[in-house]
Design brief:
alpha+beta; six-stranded mixed sheet
Length: 141
Amino acid sequence: MITKRGYSKDPSIMPEGIVVTLGRSMIEEKCGPGKAGLLAFLRWFESCLEGDGTFFLKMKNCPKIEFDHVYIIVANRLYCRCYFGGYERNVRFKGYMKPTDTERTLANWKGGITLAGPIEKPKFKRILRGFQSFRYCEKLF
């Protein structure tokens, strides 16, 4: 589990959220390599979550504990916090796969989570190394 002070294996700490990584390969696939691609992706991601907006994130494993917040890691840094909108298995939906898409694409995924806005950004910088899937965490900010 990720805590404010680092990682902990203390079973007495109750998770209050999860941390997920938006990986470099996913960002480059959607917006291109380098800093320009990263900035384009972050603008698109934030615009999807403005107000009551949602963003569907592909994820194989299902969280087993109820929580309210999802913390996002981008480029090995804690980027933001948004709300958890639920987990779905065997998802079939239509959505914009890239910021440049003009039409929605039909996607079939084994599972994923819905992220809901609004986004809150931390008032500090924190380095967190990325990982696959998710990690439980306490309230980080």
